[in-house]
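Progress against Task 2.4 (sequence-to-structure conversion) is shown through the following example record, which the project officer requested during the mid-term review.
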Amino acid sequence: MTRRFLLGFDVGSSSVKASLVDADSGVCAASAFFPESEAPIKALKTGWAEQDPESWWTYAKQSLQKIMAETGATGEDIKAIGISYQMHGLVCVDKQLNVLRPSIIWCDSRAVPYGEKAFAELGTDKCLTQLLNSPGNFTAAKLAWVKENEPELYNKVYKFMLPGDYLAMRLSGEVNTTISGLSEGMFWDFKNKEVAGFLMDYFGFDESLVPDIVPTFSVQSEVSAAAAAELGLKAGIPISYRAGDQPNNAVSLNVFNPGEIASTAGTSGVVYGVLGDINYDKKSRVNTFAHVNYTKDLDRLGVLLCINGTGILNAWVRRNIAPEGISYAAMNDFMASVPIGSDGVTIIPFGNGAERVLENKEVGCSIHGVNFNKHGKAHLMRAAQEGIVFSFCYGMEIMQQMGMDIQKIHAGKANMFLSPLFRDTLASVSGATIELYETDGSVGAAKGAGMGCGIYKDNNEAFATLKKLAVIEPDEARRAEYLQAYANWKATLAQVTK
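Structure tokens generated for the chain above:
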């Protein structure tokens, strides 16, 4: 029997993961990632972060080889390829499509002054109404840094790309991008529904640097003969989907429509919701990009809330406060002995750098209300998890002010979502039902490719087999207690940030 596999790549900053999904059953047949230890990030100066794009290609090949061997699949079996990738990075190539310098990746902060200056000089109203964001530290500002600081190299630039565009180029020999990708780099004008010429002119970029624009779900290019020979694939396989990691996480959780929310809670936490109308936060506390199904005729925006101090705080508590050697599961049981609100102990969880949700203030992590006569480790541990949840809810209120009706949160059953206390608190404070699924980014990219090449007619067919693992409803009987604890936390935050 002929097998039909969809191949998904997820280009992260720590590894590249590949998955093969059976197109007919929707089941992931195999996954692998390389390197198995974290990929290196070069930091030649404080605040810099670079990676060699060639390493992504190498890791993609290694991951692919492993899953092909594990499944016994051949190049003939692969029917389409999808790509997810770390957002906001910059890759520059010359006319021969050679990479000119290491990629300046998402967590590199050297371009902040360039984005801030553009925001001030172009005007906040113009930037927010047309870009829906400050130019900030995004791809356009990174390219401006290259133009000013490496002019000889900049003069050789034929096209700029995002990391996913680079992998697609290596697979096909063609350079193209999507509207969603351009929007995350601050190159898309939502008012005029075209490349943001006013920002290009401000930075002095020629519009010829912009890659050809292709729809997110479409046959964007095909695997070249050269790439097929190198990878053991078949020439002509369609590359039919790509998206940044957060929009793609939403795709993997079947989040496409206004009011639907996707969330992750690893080292940092993300709440990503779909908005059906053009809008923005006037204080730029959340970011707004084109979602995967945005078109010039259909407004579908992805509103992105990022909280830096999520799992990293939970891990810090385990190392420094919890009883030695305790597991995360046992930690959750231990802190559950403390009542909602942690008996008055409050933790502000922002100890992992400046927080956009706080207008880029760096307030640090702080502990409040400790009474030496009644509070112990369990109170501090619960207060930390509650503080993380409350920071999510604080950001979600901004999203609601933008017109988002949050009734359901989709998430993978992983990281902080493994904690019943975290899940129950989030559901009960937000009033939203939480649904937990078994999926990941590379599987989402594979299924996106199935949509793009026409194997699936729509997202509902593509994700019909998405496995729901749990449903968490708000605890209506105790919701008043949760909301009071949240109100107390917000009052403390107001004191910290005043």
